[in-house]
Amino acid sequence: HLIHKRESKPIAAYQVERVLVPLSDAYDVVADLSPWENTALSGKQLKRAQVQFDPNSGTPLVGLQFNAEGSDLFAELTGSHVGEPIAIFLDGEAISTPTVSQAIYGGEAVITGDFTLDEAKTLAQRLNAGALPVPVHLLSQETVGPTLGAASLQTSIFAALVGFALVSAFMIVVYRLPGLLAVLALVLYAFLNLAAYRLFGVTVTLSGIAGLVLTFGIAVDANVLIFERMKDEFRTGRDLVSSIDEAFVRAWPPIRDGHMTTLISAAVLFTFSSSFVKGFALTLAIGVLLSLFTAVVVTRVYLRNIRDVRGLRSPTLYAVKKSESAS
Questions:
Q1: For FRET with 17, which of 91, 190, 230, 268 sits at 20 to 30 Å CA-CA?
Q2: Residue 218 maps to which CATH number?
Q3: Cα-flanking dihedrals φ and ψ of residue 99, to 5°?
């Protein structure tokens, strides 16, 4: 907005072509708004502001050009306030306070003073910024309490540790040695998730934590499919080596299909949902890919490394009763 001063004393200024700039500073910020009065002239009537140069001295100037409405308003404003300062405000801050030397007609004016080229460019850019109508569209909003971050972080960490402990206990009790190997694979899975978040710059939100916890269940589910198939192969009379290999072969199709359907769901959520749900979808997708790796590759490596150890071949270590094993 262009604002004129109601009552003011003459301000010492450089004499310029048509507008005066106070000696204090090219960007004289007026802290007290009470002496200033709004006018009808605003950035809507400004067509453009651009850097120009004085033809005699070559010093930088800032040229203003108004539209037809702005030209009439500017002529009226300058004609009734000759010798008085006018302030140009952007976002509540006076970015320039030149003094009117005479009435200005034609819709063009020049702001001059002791500008450097950078200062003139900056002033022109700020004037143009005030002239551009920038619409604001609300994409999404969230209400977050002031203590939500710290409290939620502590609660989430505690819940994750409790959940991991319960899952680990269940896997070890039910599946014994393979369950212990699955727990080790889950530890590696957790570290790989954190590394992926760091690598790709993922911001962990509450929805993201929910996605991470869900993928822990998916990773465990893949191991359950493998171990149950391995127990079935034991019961048919296969030895440990062939039972492990056959278990991975037979468990692979359902594991693959389950992970693929989850990935598709995560992709749809990430594409069409709000930013709050996108965090959940992203951590879910990363977790599904990593759980596929740890369940099919890491767990298989663990089992292959222990199957040749003499004291670790007993079917009871793999949750199979000796009466159920034909070996």
A1: 91
A2: 1.20.1640.10
A3: -110, 135
pLDDT band of 253, cuts 50, 70, 90: very high
What does the alpha-carbon distance between residue 77 and residue 99 come to, in Å, rounded to a whole number?
Answer: 12
- Same-domain check for residues 171 and 278: yes
- Which has the minimum average pLDDT: 45-49, 63-67, 125-129, 320-324? 320-324
310 and 170 in one domain?
A: yes
Residues 179 and 302 in one domain: yes
Q: Among 79, 108, 131, give the residue marking a domain's end.
A: 131
- In which domain, by residue range, is 86 found? 2-131
> Is this prediction's pTM over 0.85?
no
